[in-house]
Design a protein that fits this description.
The protein is an alpha+beta fold and 619 residues long. It is built from 28 helices and 9 strands. Among the domains are: 66 residues, Phosphorylase Kinase, domain 1 (2-Layer Sandwich), CATH 3.30.200; 176 residues, Transferase(Phosphotransferase) domain 1 (Transferase(Phosphotransferase), domain 1, Orthogonal Bundle); 150 residues, Tetratricopeptide repeat domain (Serine Threonine Protein Phosphatase 5, Tetratricopeptide repeat). The strands form 3 sheets. It has a 4-stranded antiparallel sheet with strand order 1-2-4-3. Strands 5-7-8 form a 3-stranded antiparallel sheet. The protein is globular, with a radius of gyration of 27 Å.
Length: 619
Amino acid sequence: MATVYSAEDLKHGRRVAVKIVDPAVSMALGPERFLREIRVSASLQHPNILPLFDSGEAGDLLYYVMPLVEGTSLRERIKKEGQLSLDDALRTTEQVAAALDYAHSHGVVHRDIKPENILIDGDRAVVADFGIAKTLDAAAESLTVTGVVVGTPTYMSPEQSTGERVVDGRSDIYSLACVLFELLAGEPPFTGASAQAVIAKRFAGPVPSVRVLRRGVPMAVDRAITRALAQAPADRFATAGEFARALRANGKAAFGRTALPLGAAIVAGVIVAGGIGAGIWKMRRPDRTATRDSVAVSLAIRGNAQLDRRNSEGVRRSFQLYQQAIARDSDYTDGWAGLARVLWFANNWRYPIPGLAPDSVIPLMVRASDRAVELDSNSVPALVAKSLVLRAVDPTNLVPRFAIVERVVKLDSTSVDGWFQFGSLWQDSLELRRAIAAYRHAVTVRPTHANSLAFIGFVYCWLGQPDSALVWADSAVKVDPSNVLARQAVGFAHRGRGEWDATRPAYEAAVRLGNGPEQLFGFAGLAELAWRRNDRRAADRILKQAVAHADTLTPTVHGAAYLAWGFAQTGQPERALRLLERYEPRADKHFQLHLQREPMLDALRKLPRFQALLVHPAR
């Protein structure tokens, strides 16, 4: 949120720290509002709060000045020591809690408690960066309204991560509990390859026990941390001081029964063992599986049909239909499962949903999935949705998803979605023959399932058998001419057969029928065709169109793979490699599938930087 500079205060002859506020935050606040709010922070006088010397505006930059602490930050101490002693960890937490208690009593919420903002001066912990804290009176004007989110995902409370307009001191208590967990365990309670993965895990699973990582932690401390990390603010401690006192409590008397966070895996019917996964399942509750509201059923069926289109418009319409189904019956399992699935597609393909902020998609997706499994833990649609959610939470681990999908096909051997998910899992495991078998099973159940037909075409291409691929891809187009995936598969197969002229209609159809990210396949293919006929100007023009439809700084898995194809096949290996290197997490199984099997990337395959991207799979 700010860049720190060491400076000399010439007027008073002292060393100071000058913080220049991030330009985005400066724009969101404006100088008048910034100075108004910084004035409140300047009034905070507490031994564990770093005081504010000065603030102001210089050109377009906003700044504030604080003492230069000669010690170190808590982050630097964690890097050096890993785990702190119990006494040091508790003493630091108690001092930070005292600072927060004082600030909260004066109407100031920090919103970004993390090791970097806790300075260690001898035996004293000092909380810094109250400079852009929000007063409770101004909380309704949250910075998140403008798209600027104050906070750090690893330590951010659930309500803050979903962009709640109003947060209070209990959000800081949650962040402080994350810090204490890290001081004791050597790592935060929720980790992930990306900010989205961290946020998703916070909603998808129960609060981990610090004693799993460090057995010597007293039960009282473990219970206090668990309560402070409750998903609902009402289930946490009311004040930071109460949290600090609970850490020193003897026995269990200080703790009431703490409700499990909404979305905890036990509530969802899954007990987590060694990660997010399927272990022990509740008994079926058929009374909540279906609904007696025939209109709700019709809405969900229509939502399923729209979602099968796998494009932006289908996602938008299906989201509305599932919402309407749930509005008619809030206990309708299939409605919640459908909502989770459509949110997964929106997140995976970066499809916008009107009225829904992008940062809210994953938390809402997890909640919808948990609600579906809570209503009926043996519901096939709910379990299929859960499998997709786990892919968003951790795309590097297929084990828990295999467990769920195996259960799906045991519950219903005719589940097309179950077999389709099996195919997806096997292909991401690079077990391509098994993937074909699973997709063919789905087609046996429903011969008109265009997505399975298309993926059989893709997998045969990855196996280097374009003749077989074309048979299945053509079948997918015949079943559903508007299916973008089917058109892509046809283009892929013709390319593998060296039938370059035949690829053009498929690429053009992918661009015409697609919307946004799914058009990248077609653009990349058309750029390659232009390059092959020595029309470099046309190739460049097409790739510019492609880039306009993609996020090249934080690309999606398909955005990275397909744009890299376009660059690699038009003599731009540096741009292709740079794009692939930006994708995170690198160990994403589906990303690795594209890297290791995509013939469009063959031009890069022998380059050392490309080889460095490969992660050898292990199921």
